[in-house]
Amino acid sequence: MNRKEKVYNILQILSENINLKDLKNGNCGFDATEIGEKLNILRNNVSKELNILVSENRVIKIMGKPVHYIDKRRIEKILGKKLNRNITKLESIDLLLKSDYNSDDKEIEENSDIFEHIIGANQSMEVPIKQAKAAILYPSGGMHTLLIGPTGVGKTMFAEMMYKYAVQIGKVKPKAQFIVFNCAKYAENPQLILSQLFGHVKGAFTGADQDKPGLLEKADGGILLLDEVHRLSPESQEMLFYFMDKNVYRRLGETENMRSADVLLIAATTEDADSVLLKTFLRRIPMVIKIPTLSDRPLTERYRLIKQFFGDQVKCMNVPIKVYKDVIKALLLYDCTGNIGQLKADIQLMCARGFLEYKTYHKKVVEIDTPLVPENVYHGLLNSRDKREELEDLLDIDNKEYYKFTQNNSRDLISMDEYDVSDEIYKEINNKYYFYDHQGCSETEINRKMNEIIEKYLRRLIKKIDIQGKISDENKIFKIVSPRVYNAVEMALDIAERKLKKHYSKNVTIALSMHISSLIERISEGKVAYNENLNEIAVNHPDEYDTAKLVKRLLEDKLDIEIPEEEIGFIAIFLYAIDSENSNKKIGVIVLAHGKHTASSIADVVNSLLDTDDCKSIDMPLDEKVDSILTKAIEMVKKINQGKGVLILVDMGSLVSFEGIIKKETNIDVRAVETISTPVVLEAVRKCMIPEMTLKQLVEDLKYSTPYMGRSLSNLLKDNRKTRIIITTCVTGEGTAVKLADLLKNNLPAITAYNIVIKPMNIYNVNNIEIDEEENIIAVVGSVDLKIPDVPYIPINEILIGNGFMDINNIIEGGNIYHRMELENDIQIPNLTVKMIENSLNFLNPVKAYNAISSSYSKLIKLLEVKDRDDFKTAFMLHSCCMVERALKKEPLSYDNIDESIRNAPMLYKNIKESLKIVEETFGMEIPDTEIGYIMDLIDTHFDDTH
């Protein structure tokens, strides 16, 4: 991309956020200095490119000191009409709103260039458009054209735009047709193709019982698109090139009569034209236009396509759509092999899933977040490192948290920042403080939690200014924060430093300045609201609380405002939570794993999700020597150490030995932990962002997150004697048993390490258990005890709310089930139940599904007058969540003799049916009787007499 287009791209992005209200308030666009800072290009060079863009009628220039520029298309979209071509320079932006600067709508429509509506008209599509115009404008009937490009690039759409352009300039009459013929549809029947193209006379072939005109006749005076032209037979191609030569043809079966037609042919193919089409045919098509693939087009064009497709879906659904930033990132970066067609289809799929949730949960908007993203699209987040700079140009200019499309302006992205309202930080501090206090957390732990919240708030504030590497640029800061506010906060923090014997970084000054600026605005609008307990939290830190009072008084005096008393509490928390000695220093994290891309792939995902680059990686190809890897690790530890040490996450126990060698070599505190998975690395990097986190504390925290860390390498030796088996069971079909098997595999590394085989079974095939002599059943897990002698049974509720995981691990490693490892166990029933079902649900939100079905369960227990049992609840929840989705998809389970089962237990059926009304009303559907039959069986299994 050349410099001019880079300048134009940035101006387009900046102009996206201007609306009619801004124009009326005198928003004059953007000057060359501001644009140059975004691109690190000298102001003079930017100004030169902007003036070229003005001469090309793409940018409007607003005279003044300094001169400002606005993307012309954005202004036209705001005003709802095109501007005259002579509008390129204006004395004032107010003139844009005056009617005499706007063309008559009818005149505009007649004079506008239809190709301007194509995304990329001045970039990747510039050459194809010039070629298309040349083909249409060619004397006489135009120039026959061949469009080449892979599936999905938009060849049919481009051909249609050529037709509309021909109509617009008068080369084709408005009544003339644009006809599309897919040659592949009849490729196996050449005679039928000839009939479709040229028509036939009665008796030309069997079944031709009357004359029929062909497409050439219907398209007379217009344009005929031959899609997938490479599927034409040689005979068909020969007849067509004769037609292109002479403009005459015969219907199939005609021998004397010669017909004429004036038709411009546009052919399209995904293949190499030279290898699939006759040379004589190609010679009659002098204009060949190559349509670029999506990967060949700049990221800015894909960005506009994404916006357009979401806007189209808003119009279809007539409901606003909120799209989260990571979704936009994934769509921008994934390998979209099907080009524009696939991009549109993937967005439609996400919107369909989001719309189902919108209807199911009665939302106000359709939300598109990462759980709704197809796996192939989600992989795009792994590519963020490759295109980080270009991605930042597109997405990070305004720090958008999510994008909202509305019916009123469905093609524009509205920047939304959920952290703009400072009141939210007060609520969060208050709520989290009392939550942790009631959980019995120590004061130190609570301080750490509060610090996390403040740090998160600070990062959101800091990111509002593009100050990476340029924090001393006060001109940039003062575009966001008033110099008066900034100087007052700087003076206040100077007093705080001396009183508390701390040093606060410039980041902290900027963040608190932005907070105070927001506070002043909210005070003026009467929108200040605090929780009365905010100060109670802060008084636990008397030194900071007293200092906060001084800060408040100084700010009131310097800014001539009255700050609410409750703000003292927030300032105090700010002062004790943000310690510059820690806030700018983090524990280093390195992922070290065997394989060409294992470590870097995990690091890319973690960095993308946390919007950071703190997670480093070293890939270890199997053919690379250990000494070479160790050297890389030593150098990286030296490079990333900030004084708080480095955590190394390794995938094999032998690599733990790197810890001692690196410590000795570098004299840096290094800890190696043997566990690698995306969730574990994600947790490690997240906790490294906490200023008060120490390396020792981090390692301890990760041990509780992964209780099987630190196994010696010898424990990983597989038992090569009998194959050991764990059977998972259920009463409602094998579905739940299969999901339970997946849960065990995903949460117990020992299952893979010891080559344990898991066999899912249901109640109906229990009697058909076939165990080979070489197999050894070591445990039965689930909702049915198979009562196998000397084989322990672990109920499903022990997995979800008890010590089931530790029991199974001890059985596998040879421990005693009654001597459990004494580890902290904070598992809650909703967490693991939801975790177990979420991979099997395509549409439903697992947490919300759990809540609805949990209410249904509570009602059922009351109606049955039975005691609440954990084992029954977990089995009921797991079955019912999948049952709801099956019912929504109209794919219910079958059940033999359901009518007889209902007649034998009418009250049980009635109670279940009554309890499920909550679910049916929530999801707007009806549970079929066959599904209720399985719930009846479930109840019979757990309770003696419920009929």
From TrEMBL:
SUPFAM superfamilies (alphabetical): P-loop containing nucleoside triphosphate hydrolases, PTS system fructose IIA component-like, PTS-regulatory domain, PRD
Protein name: Sigma-54-dependent transcriptional regulator
Organism superkingdom: Bacteria
GO biological process terms held by the UniProt record: phosphoenolpyruvate-dependent sugar phosphotransferase system; regulation of DNA-templated transcription
Protein's UniProt keywords contain Zinc: no
Keyword terms of this UniProt record: ATP-binding, Nucleotide-binding, Transferase
Domain PRD: 480-585, 844-947
One function term, GO molecular function aspect: transferase activity
PROSITE patterns to which the protein is assigned, alphabetical: PRD_2, PTS_EIIA_TYPE_4, SIGMA54_INTERACT_2, SIGMA54_INTERACT_4
Domain PTS EIIA type-4 intervals: 586-725
Domain Sigma-54 factor interaction stretches: 118-352
Entry keyword annotation includes Nucleotide-binding: yes
